[in-house]
Amino acid sequence: MVVSDEQLASEAGVEILKKGGNAVDAAVAVAFALAVVDPQAGNIGGGGFMLVRLADGRAAFVDYREEAPKHASRNMYLRSDGTLDAEGSTVGYRSVAVPGTVAGLELALKTYGTKKLAEVMAPAIRLAEQGFPVSEKLAASLRDSQPTLQRFSMSRRVFLKDGAPYQPGDIFRQPKLAATLRRIARYRSAEFYRGQTAHKLADEMARAGGLITLADLGAYKAKIREPLRASYDVNGSHWEMITSPPPSSGGIAAIEALNILAPIELKDWQDAQSVHWVVEAMRRVFADRAAYLADADFAHVPVKGLTDPRYAGELRATIHPRLASSSKQIGAGNPAPFDSVEGSPATSSLEPRGAAAPSFREGNHTTHFSVVDAAGNSVANTYTLNDSYGSGVTTTTGFLLNDEMDDFTVQPGHPNMFDLVQSDANAIGPGKRPLSSMMPTILLRDGKLSFVTGSPGGPGIISATLLSILNWMRLGMDAQAAINAPRFHQQWLPDVLYVETTFSQATARELEQRGYRITERDWIGNIEAIAIDPKTGERLGAADPRRQGAAVGY
Ligand code: DON
Asked: In angstroms, what CA-CA distances link 361 with 94, 153, 364, 455?
């Protein structure tokens, strides 16, 4: 079973499974295919995380997050008067961090796959070379991103048809990307990081004022990390969650929230009392995200303390049984977890979102997919260009570059494009990976594979993925209902409860009476999950209807 945002990409995965590939082979095929058919988020010029859990019980987290180039520095986006050049970290060459996708996919394939890179890349190469019909969804997203794409000559050439937006049904061919994919299939990641692709990218960066050099590309390494694990006993079953460690904030946040909620009765999301508890858990874990979380290879991250059930108990005790807390009163960092260092949290003087700050961007700029093969190997993968179509820059070799630099704390005390305030621990530093919310996650029930999940959505990733887990593990919803259920999101700052438009109006009014300020959003997250039927072992693909995801099995 393969579930992704795009039918053609899910089919690419199934094509590899049918040829005897395992879940990792299929996942790599899906990722390369998404780079062709879902260019706003699928990528080879970005980065992400792949969580692998093999049927024999081994699990690994492939961290292919982008990295700051060597010449990056903490104040690189501040003007001489200290104000933020907001576009610097979000559009154009200077916003680009060293891409990790090609290294990550190659590492995953080499370590856990069974097939050759050229074989799993074949569907992507075919889609780029022969083209595919533009969907309504792709046409709309290309149209929405015109203002940014128009600014860069290769983006105009690739993503416009003779200067005008592609229409649904037009055939979209990407010959330059196809040629690059062919070179990667032949010479592997060495081509991307040291070969012709790397040389062209470094030349272009030097010409256009970007920071990435050949040395940066040559030094990039994907890393295999230990995933985080937590366990919960729910309704007579023992659940184990395998999730994302730093530089993701998502795994820590989800464990912390599930720990807070462990003894709390949850009914459903029409029950204001249940929503209240989840929202207050979200508020507190996002306050900790703001205070402590960063790339743990560069900063001390108190993972043990934050994920300790006793710490969750302390946080739970600060939640009023009925009324909304105030984010201002909670402040960054809640009570300090035991392994935090003296002096943190670093975010002591927070400023409210200024009028000049960019507002939250909705869109589908990240993409998650899930794969489970016949043997029970599973993959949860989330990867991104950050913003829709990343930095807006398409390289001369035909692929879009990320603007992941904006996930760093570009200006301490000020929110980023997702309204997230982050700490000094996440300041820009050479070779450092920016803090992410992406959190591919796998659940086991009584030792057996049960749920594979993850989402796009900036900070909404954490809330959407957490809710999918609560829906499946705690509320016992069926797989599709767990994905369809209305979502809500609270990220500490701003002190707003976001609810999807499908959220119960009556419940929203009741929450307002408890002190919540509510704002509606069209969608929060976009989950592409696979659940395993505990009775039959059947793989239940649950694609998100919010963005017309596609579950394909055989
Ligand atoms: O890594 C992160 O958390 C962000 N770069 C993800 C961006 C995102 O999900 C935008 N999506 N809709």
From this structure: 20, 24, 9, 16
Is the predicted pLDDT of residue 244 greater than 70, yes or no? yes
Cα 345–Cα 349–Cα 352 angle in degrees, nearest 5: 120
Among candidates 455, 382, 454, 390, which has minimal Cα distance to 417? 390
Residues 146-187 have pLDDT tens digits of 999 999 999 999 999 988 899 999 999 999 999 999 999 999
**What is the SS3 assignment for 500?**
strand
DSSP symbol at 394: B
Strands of 469-513 (E only): list them: 488-489, 497-500
Cis peptide before 165 (omega within 30 of 0): no
- The predicted-structure confidence for 77-94, as pLDDT tens digits, reads as follows 999 998 999 899 999 999
Hey, what amino acid is at 102? V
Amino acid at 231: S
CA-nearest residue for atom 12, ligand 1, is 457
| Angle, CA 395 vertex, CA 392 and CA 397 arms, to 5° | 145
Considering 90, 180, 366, 367, which one is annotated as catalytic?
Answer: 366
438 lines ligand 1 (CB under 6 A): yes
Q: Which residue's CA is the closest to the ligand 1 atom numbered 6?
A: 458
Q: Which amino acid is at 197?
A: T
